[in-house]
């Protein structure tokens, strides 16, 4: 299967911060000898290099749908990345200390895209509820404000389950009070590129993501889309107006400070 | 350039493409550090930061479908999600005075920090 390898190599070696990095011993596929490699975890991709200074990774493990577990091995501080499926490989790795092993197991367990998406959705929901009020206030959002069941996909990777949502948050006067002193680095952009849009301005906060329906998507995507489309349209509209106004305020304030 | 009909699937931060009658993908594009651009009618392109002249072009059946794909792909990267999370976390913290990740015990995770550092 073809991959855009140059882009993968770029992601591995560019100066975006790594979520973990260090030497690990990797057990070979055919021979059981361990080889010391430099590992770099970025997002849901675990790259490994022959040497720390190598300019390109020799391999990558995509951390979706896997479990990370300690394993019984002659090698000390060993752990395994295990994929389901009959033909799938198990990667056995060993750290150089107990602390390193624990650090890697923790960061690898939470590395999946699905896990990140769950957390983002959870925070989005909290933010929406704080701004527009919980289920009742939205006129149509299904009443799941009191509890939230995390989907299983990707959660095998994480040791703790996300607890239920907090109780109803106090309403403001229907309009959230935003602290109008954002830093530039706090506003994400909606384009795929780093940095800003064409004018060099940071883009306003993203709307809740819509994903192309696909059978291999996690069921959590379907759950999010089960709510009535018109409700989301209304939310988007209100949210968008609020955001546009705040952005205007912010830009004006910046100009005022020059 | 010849247009070939493909089945295209967006799964996490990968765009898989298949021949229409095959179960295994021909290939995949990792969607990190890429730019998604609306081109002419029904067409969008994906290019990558390390090779910006090279465009992967896709023609859709309708303008609506094209817009849907552009929006979905712009939000498809892990790095985009990370930025969103950091932004939401910060907003909630400003409004409530509390870090919303604390209740999940993940507030110290490197990946959720504003200016995460390399080892």
Automatic annotation (TrEMBL), chain A:
InterPro entries in alphabetical order: Boi1/Boi2-like (IPR045188), PH-like_dom_sf (IPR011993), PH_domain (IPR001849)
A Pfam family matched in the record: PH
PROSITE patterns assigned to the protein according to its UniProt record, in alphabetical order: PH_DOMAIN
One GO-annotated biological process of the protein: endosome organization
Principal location class: other
Annotated PH domain residues: 17-113
Family that this chain belongs to: Belongs to the sesquipedalian family.
The protein's name: Sesquipedalian
Species this chain originates from: Lophotis ruficrista
From TrEMBL, chain B:
Annotated TM spans: none
Source species, domain of life: Eukaryota
UniProt-listed Pfam families: PH
GO cellular component: cytosol; early endosome; recycling endosome; trans-Golgi network
Stretches assigned to the PH domain: 1-78
InterPro entries: Boi1/Boi2-like (IPR045188), PH-like_dom_sf (IPR011993), PH_domain (IPR001849)
GO biological process, one term: endosome organization
UniProt name for this protein: Pleckstrin homology domain-containing family J member 1
Organism taxonomic ancestry: Eukaryota, Metazoa, Chordata, Craniata, Vertebrata
Gene: Plekhj1
């Amino acid at each position: 299967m073809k991959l855009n390898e140059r882009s993968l190599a770029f992601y591995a070696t560019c100066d975006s911060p790594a979520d973990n990095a260090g030497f690990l011993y990797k057990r070979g596929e055919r021979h059981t000898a361990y080889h010391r490699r430099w590992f770099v975890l970025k997002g849901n991709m675990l790259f490994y290099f022959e040497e720390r200074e190598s300019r390109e990774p020799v391999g990558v493990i995509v951390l979706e749908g896997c479990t990370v577990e300690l394993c019984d091995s002659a090698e000390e501080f060993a752990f395994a990345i295990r994929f389901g499926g009959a033909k799938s490989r198990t990667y056995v790795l060993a750290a150089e200390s107990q602390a390193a092993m624990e650090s890697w197991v923790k960061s690898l367990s939470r590395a999946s895209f699905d896990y990140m998406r769950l957390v983002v959705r959870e925070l989005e929901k909290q933010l929406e509820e704080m701004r527009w009020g919980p289920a009742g206030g939205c006129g149509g959002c299904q009443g799941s404000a009191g509890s939230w069941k995390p989907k299983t996909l990707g959660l095998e990777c994480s040791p703790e389950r996300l607890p239920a949502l907090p109780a109803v948050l106090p309403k403001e006067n229907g309009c959230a009070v935003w602290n109008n002193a954002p830093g530039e680095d706090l506003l994400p952009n909606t384009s795929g590129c780093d940095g800003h849009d064409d004018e060099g301005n940071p883009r306003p906060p993203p709307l809740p993501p819509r994903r192309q329906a696909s059978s291999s998507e996690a069921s959590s995507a379907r759950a999010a889309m089960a709510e009535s489309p018109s409700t989301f349209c209304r939310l988007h509209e209100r949210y968008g107006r609020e955001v546009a106004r705040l952005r205007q305020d912010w830009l004006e304030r910046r100009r005022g400070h020059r | 350039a010849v247009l070939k009909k493909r089945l295209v699937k967006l799964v996490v931060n990968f765009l898989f493409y298949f021949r229409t009658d095959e179960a295994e993908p021909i290939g995949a594009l990792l969607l990190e550090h890429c730019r998604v651009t609306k081109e002419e009618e029904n067409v969008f392109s994906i290019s990558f930061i390390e090779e910006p002249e090279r465009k992967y072009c896709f023609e859709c059946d309708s303008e609506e479908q094209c817009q849907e794909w552009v929006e979905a792909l712009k939000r498809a990267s892990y790095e985009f999600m990370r930025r969103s999370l950091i932004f939401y976390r910060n907003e909630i913290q400003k409004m409530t005075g509390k870090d919303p990740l604390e209740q999940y015990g993940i507030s110290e995770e490197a990946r959720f920090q504003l200016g995460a550092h390399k080892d």
